[in-house]
Amino acid sequence: MRIGILTGGGDAPGLNIAVYTLTKLLERKHEVYAIFHGWRGILDKEVRRVTSKDLIDFAFAGGTFIRTSRTNPFKDEARVEVFARNLKELGLDVIVAIGGDDTLSAAAQTQARGLANVVGVPKTIDNDVYGTDYTIGFDTAVNEAIKVTESFKTTLISHERIGVVEVMGREAGWIALFTGLATMADFVLIPEKPVNWDAVANKTKEVYRDRGWALVIASEGIREYGSPRDEFGHSRLGGVGNELAQYIEKVTGLEARAVVPGHIIRGVAPTAFDRVLAIRFVTEVFNAIECGDFGKMVAYREGDIIRVPITEVLGKNRLVDGYWMKLYETHWGP
């Protein structure tokens, strides 16, 4: 078969090893094609046959060698027509779509319209893909956020300041929660649990009086600024960390600073967990293709790798709840 592989949406550590490993498995029996720039690669016919030898030099780096974009191939009917025609001309029998909810939603439509068979792989540092406990890139992002926070903490102690670290996550607070737990932050703000900023200021002031410094972790999604939206309707986030630090300083009269590691936490080499997770995911993709089980997404559930219908995970976000929300409330609740 002719099998295409694409990476869509935001980049995440572990993508390159996923693409490399899947190519290595598939090339024994099939022709493998890299679809560059996500779904846009089909619209622009940026598709090239590759071998594992072409990809090995990039396998362990962050980012994605085959590039990415936030292109929605089903944005309008004119685009759908081009998309369908190009898919037919390219002759791809299967598309492996590695991405988050938006990328997977396009994969589901591609399958439903009979344009190509698809298999999905959950990827995003936000860890918000429904149906899987972990996504490619999350573990690495958290570990990098922890490094940044620990470095920042030393200057807070040295200068006796209050510090705010703003981390990515959109509507999901997973990165903030894990970073806050691992660094023993004094307060963590996540989108799933709205908190009055006066409560944060009062808490940090109490901590400061006790030891002379304080640390707050804030998820970017706790405030939206109405920026231009992408083709999937998402607004650009970022800026709440500095706003919160200024607010704390104004209310408490204490010196506060903010750092925003931003894209840095997703541009590094993947951790061992993300490397192994990526390999386990694409191995299951290979098995799915070999037995003709299409329209599925591979997922991590309680240590096992399984397949679930893509349609079951669409339109839902995996947010902090249940056990994890109780853990959050135990540490930072009222």
TrEMBL record:
Keywords attached to this entry: Cytoplasm, Glycolysis, Kinase, Magnesium, Metal-binding, Transferase
Q: Name one GO cellular component term.
A: 6-phosphofructokinase complex
Which pathway does the protein contribute to? Answer: Carbohydrate degradation; glycolysis; D-glyceraldehyde 3-phosphate and glycerone phosphate from D-glucose: step 3/4
The cross-references to Pfam families, in alphabetical order and at most eight, read: PFK
* One of the GO biological process terms: fructose 1,6-bisphosphate metabolic process
Mention one GO molecular function: metal ion binding
Upper classification of the source organism reads:
Archaea, Thermoproteota, Thermoprotei, Thermoproteales, Thermoproteaceae
Limits of the Phosphofructokinase domain:
2-288
Cofactor(s) needed, names only, are: Mg(2+)
Its name, as the record gives it, is Pyrophosphate--fructose 6-phosphate 1-phosphotransferase
InterPro entries, alphabetized: ATP_PFK (IPR022953), ATP_PFK_prok-type (IPR012003), Phosphofructokinase_dom (IPR000023), PKF_sf (IPR035966)
This chain's source organism reads Vulcanisaeta souniana JCM 11219
